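Here is the promised in-class demo. Please do not try to memorize the tokens; focus on the logic of going from shape to residues.
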């Protein structure tokens, strides 16, 4: 659905003037609306699942001296009573051998036979499958203390602002596309909001093993703020290699004070393996927006608008006119909608994020704008909460100066549940982690543990 897909908000919530103060008022009022919307979305059925081809997601972490914690995914197509075995190779010392005495129903295991200061590979296989080859699986070097996270050292000392996950290189493992630096310009005209961009944003890609892949510079035509620089990481064209999509421009169109008021604007498609731009199309125009503040708010997401293939959703506008465009894998228009004419009553109903979900159970996703809240910080800035490795218990990804950390549980559990990331609505939620404010992904009613 197009216009009708937006949640209708009473007129009292719709802004009719440009004050930033009003934006704060509308956000507070919409909070109560979200208390209704989020449970509603989580309870609605999803008739079709479009599953990425992902591996077992095995992860090994140091629990304490002499003990490692191994966890892995229960995939959507695994049997309900699936059993597993764990094979371990002590690098340079022993060949691959099974370390569990009996087949495992749970999706985690504690190995109490490791020696500190050694390197190991762990590989989880379905019961009765053949052992794995040498030098494969989840790698771990053992220390005398617990380390509840995986650390990826970055090519820069800058702190990440966002991270997107998808399989860039086709090996069934999620890779990382990071945006730097952790600096934010807000287009609001009130004092203290807008600031001159100190440097352009750039994207860096790292594979699942933390190896650097490429860099893409977003350039001076994109100001360094959340609303100017949405990007999306997903395999839209379904070729087995995820692409990166982002807003782009040309040259250096800054005015003397640093504002970008004019110039060509594009959506670009970046090859996830090389970082090279392979296609582009015009971004939604500024026509019809009253002010710089209004036209500077841009979004990207994905949705299954035709029930069979993912589409790219481009949106411009939040507090006045809203324009939305759906594009196919070749960046060709599928449909366009804006809150004008007979849809004018939808103007001003946008917010700081955009949800795609199959609300009416027809296998086609609808779009919902809503307001959420920031999550708490641990060590480093929280960039994402999601089930991207290991069992169904979610990880926390944080950004520190020159480092990306993936915090994961080391608490054993006898329970096992299907991985969350293969739930369509949950995966759609993860794909939005690089756009607007961060909203944790929600599960559909059709998720079956």
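The designed amino acids, position by position:
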């Amino acid at each position: 659905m197009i216009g009708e897909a937006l949640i209708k908000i009473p007129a009292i919530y719709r802004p009719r003037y440009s004050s930033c103060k009003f934006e704060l008022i509308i956000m507070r009022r919409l909070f109560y609306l979200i208390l209704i919307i989020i449970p509603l979305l989580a309870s609605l059925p999803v008739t079709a699942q479009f599953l990425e081809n992902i591996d077992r997601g095995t992860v090994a972490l140091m629990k304490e001296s002499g003990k490692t914690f191994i966890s892995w995914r229960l995939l959507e197509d695994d049997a309900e009573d699936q059993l597993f075995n764990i094979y371990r190779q002590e690098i340079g010392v022993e060949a691959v051998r099974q370390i569990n005495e009996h087949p495992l129903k749970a999706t985690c295991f504690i190995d109490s036979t490791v020696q500190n200061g050694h390197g190991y590979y762990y590989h989880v296989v379905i019961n009765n499958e053949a052992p794995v080859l040498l030098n494969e699986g989840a790698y771990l070097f053992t220390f005398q203390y617990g380390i509840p996270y995986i650390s990826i050292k970055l090519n820069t000392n800058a702190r990440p602002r966002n991270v997107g996950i998808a399989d860039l290189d086709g090996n069934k493992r999620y890779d990382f596309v990071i945006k730097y630096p952790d600096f934010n310009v807000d287009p609001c005209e009130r004092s203290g909001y807008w600031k001159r961009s100190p440097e352009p944003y750039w994207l860096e890609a790292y594979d699942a093993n933390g190896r650097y892949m490429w860099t893409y510079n977003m350039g001076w035509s994109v100001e360094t703020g959340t609303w100017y620089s949405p990007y999306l990481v997903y395999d839209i064209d379904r070729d087995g290699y995820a692409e990166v999509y982002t807003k782009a421009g040309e040259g250096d169109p800054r005015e003397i004070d640093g504002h970008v008021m004019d110039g060509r604007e594009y959506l670009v498609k970046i090859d996830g393996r090389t970082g090279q731009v392979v296609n582009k199309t015009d971004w939604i125009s500024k026509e019809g927006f009253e002010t710089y503040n209004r036209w500077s708010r841009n979004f990207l997401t994905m949705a299954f608008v035709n029930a069979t293939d993912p589409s790219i959703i481009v949106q411009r506008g939040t507090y006045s006119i809203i324009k939305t465009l759906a594009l196919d894998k070749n960046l060709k228009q599928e449909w366009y909608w804006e809150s004008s004419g007979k849809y004018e009553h939808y103007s001003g109903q946008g917010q700081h994020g955009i949800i795609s979900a199959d609300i009416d159970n027809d296998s086609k996703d609808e779009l919902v704008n809503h307001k959420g809240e920031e999550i708490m910080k641990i060590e480093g800035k929280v960039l994402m909460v999601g089930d991207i490795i290991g069992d169904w218990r979610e990880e926390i990804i944080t950004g520190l100066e020159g480092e990306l950390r993936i915090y994961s549980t080391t608490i054993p559990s006898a329970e096992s549940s299907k991985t969350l990331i293969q739930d369509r609505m949950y995966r759609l939620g993860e794909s939005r982690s690089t756009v607007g404010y961060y909203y944790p992904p929600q599960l559909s009613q059709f998720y079956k543990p």
